[in-house]
Write a structure and sequence with these properties.
two-stranded antiparallel sheet, alpha+beta, 9 helices, 10-stranded mixed sheet, Pseudouridine synthase, single chain, about 30% helix, about 270 residues
Length: about 270
């Protein structure tokens, strides 16, 4: 393995940029990374240093593989569980499994995706999520890429109360200003149906594509609200979990000294 490529396993609740920053501070070298993970996601992140620091574009081109669940039954403004509920099924519902799998398979190949409103894509110096949080009109921006492979599991019927409880436990791991109190309050006041439906997918996608955007587009096509949960980046290029270093091992002394060592940095917003 290349010593100037450092694969780490990012846990829920930190950010890719803060990992790169802490590695830079510890090793006293400039660092970059090959792609941000969402706060509710975990998985492989590659930190570049030394001779690879200037080769970021080369590694960003790598395909990335994600394992995740689509939870059908409600939607949020972020298209994952760390968002405000916008639409929900009031009564128990069903999905034609064959039709759903055909719809999902139709996304294999060339794919033009609109960036989610809550994304790090920058337009005129602002990330799209900043436009959204500041109440500004969010520009419509698209990316063209490829879904190389999709592996589709079976639909499971799951208890809605249990799923919401699991979501709460994950939200409580998130530090920083992500509207957590408002989001949890919206969950608490929503009268969900008794069951959701859940489907596991594994998708290999090209650079810059959002799993949240893919799930949004799938749900719009089948006309049933849904979100991403349990998102894990299992592979970045040739690097997988077996290649990764745990943050708690690499930064053992720093974490002992400061339990908030990996809390993300945020710009103050209204």
């Amino acid at each position: 393995m290349n010593n100037d490529i450092l694969p780490f396993w990012q846990e829920i609740g930190t950010s890719t940029s803060i990992i790169a920053k802490r590695v830079s501070e510890k090793l006293r070298v400039p660092t970059s990374h090959t792609g941000t993970l969402d706060p509710m996601a975990s998985g492989v992140v590659l930190i570049l240093k030394g001779s690879e620091y200037f080769n970021k574009e080369k590694y960003i081109q790598n395909f990335k593989t994600y394992n995740f669940d689509i939870l059908f039954g409600f939607s949020t403004d972020t298209h994952d569980s760390l968002g405000l509920i916008e639409e929900f099924e009031k009564d128990d519902f069903s999905i034609d499994e064959s039709y759903l799998k055909n719809v999902i398979s139709s996304f294999r190949g060339h794919y033009k995706q609109q960036y989610p409103d809550f994304s790090s894509k920058k337009i005129a110096g602002k990330s799209l999520w900043e436009y959204k949080r500041l109440g500004l009109e969010v520009p419509e921006v698209f990316i063209e890429g490829e879904v190389k492979e999709i592996k589709i599991g079976n639909i499971l019927k799951v208890n809605s109360k249990n799923e919401v409880q699991d979501i709460f436990e994950k939200i409580n791991l998130i530090k920083g200003n992500f509207r957590q109190d408002e989001i949890k309050h919206r969950y608490q006041e929503t009268n969900f149906c008794s069951h959701f439906l859940k489907l596991n997918l594994e998708v290999e996608m090209s650079r810059g594509m959002y799993v949240r955007g893919l799930v949004r587009d799938i749900c719009q096509k089948i006309k049933i609200p849904g979100i991403v949960i349990n998102l894990v980046r299992v592979k970045d290029g040739n690097y997988s979990v077996t290649d990764c270093v745990l943050l708690k091992d690499f930064f053992k002394d720093e974490i002992i000294s400061d339990s908030n060592y990996f809390s993300p940095d945020f710009k103050p917003l209204p």
